[in-house]
Amino acid sequence: MAALSNHPALKAVSPQAPVTDWFMGDDFHHNGAFAIMDGFSFYKGFGITRPMPTSESVGKPYNITNKDNYDFYLKTGALKNFGKLMGDSIAFWKELMQHPNYDEWWQKRDARKYVTNVKPAMLVVGGLFDAEDCFGAWNLYKAIETKSKATNNKVVMGPWVHGGWSRTDASALGNVRFGSNTSNYYQQNIEIPFFEAYLNNVKNEGEIAEASIFFSGENKWRELNQWPPVDVTPSKYFLNEGGKLSTTNNAFLKNSFAEYISDPAKPVPYTEDVHTNRTREYMTDDQRFAARRPDVLVYETPLLTNDVTLAGIVTANLNVKINTTDADFVVKIIDVFPENFKYDSSFYTNGDKPNNYVMGGYQMLVRGEIMRGKFRNSFSNPTPFIPNKLETVKFDLPDVAHTFLKGHKIMVQIQSTWFPLMDRNPQQFMDIYKADDKDFKKATIKILQGNEGGSFISLPVMK
Q: How far are the Cα atoms of 115, 128, 220, 284, 439 from residue 161, in angstroms, in the given order?
């Protein structure tokens, strides 16, 4: 907002973890699915009215006595039940519940609409593993590039959680290690030089790349002339029988269906561990626990004979049949480590020690995203599925910057619940914010496989 004021004294601005669109990808929703755990646990305290100055940062929120968030959110049930716990004083929660579709109320709140004629130099900063606003950082940068072409606009994305570039050394996240103090690198080589150039007239601004992007997997910074890079080719990875993920368009691979039953009473957890609040580490968590469930489809490549680097948007193109009138679709892109993998001593700094987690065969979540099926044709005007009719569900995952190293495998997991990260879909076409506990039904989900008209994931492969 300060940048858009174009005040003559304002020379440089760095939006860090910026929010752009609370329905499409930031904080409260992803592709129309409600982020119930963040929405409730955060806003029940943050949104409390404060009519007078106070020293309490979050007031007196509803106390969650059940420390197992999966159990708590499941037993609480339908979204309207959380409204009862939230109370009457938090206006924004009530407004959320009144706008289930991408209507004018939401569209007005998309900050990307207003980034025209931006005068200050801009340094957009975000985290590859920011659970709150990964979408916002990538897409604010792109919006400025499109709508305000004269603006000196740059983007930085590191292997960071929300605010991780200033709060930690960001040398690791959960079990995954990045091999260096990535926060210090950013501060010394990008952030300070950026502001020195515009506030102190130090002539080093040209040394900062248009896009400074850390590529996980290879664990290296790359300085790029644009984002996405020019040398990226969308490559189709087909979902084939036997859990195979293949780039080969083989006409002999006939279409078939893989299926699973999505049961809202036993949703797929977003993490294996027991927690009270949503973790930051889930963004790189081991997905082996999910791969073992019957309601999760798993596809993987053979061992890679060369490095494969992804740089840009991942697009899921699922051809599906369901026996109900609505369902969600979760697609996860996963790096499968070699069976004998372990980090060597160079990855442990500042007295940090290995945590003895078994990294051989680790299934690192690189990127995951959900799509609420009823919005497959329009986010403003949802439509029901016709039971057992073949339909296409196509959606984007936020940008990826990751290298799958030789000897690793690329894995895709598909499921229909991701709980309690995202709210449960009753799997009936309806206003989910008004659903009752009795409205939640099982659904049989079928995914069309094969290279001729089958489902595929488009990966942005960098040459």
A: 25, 7, 17, 10, 36
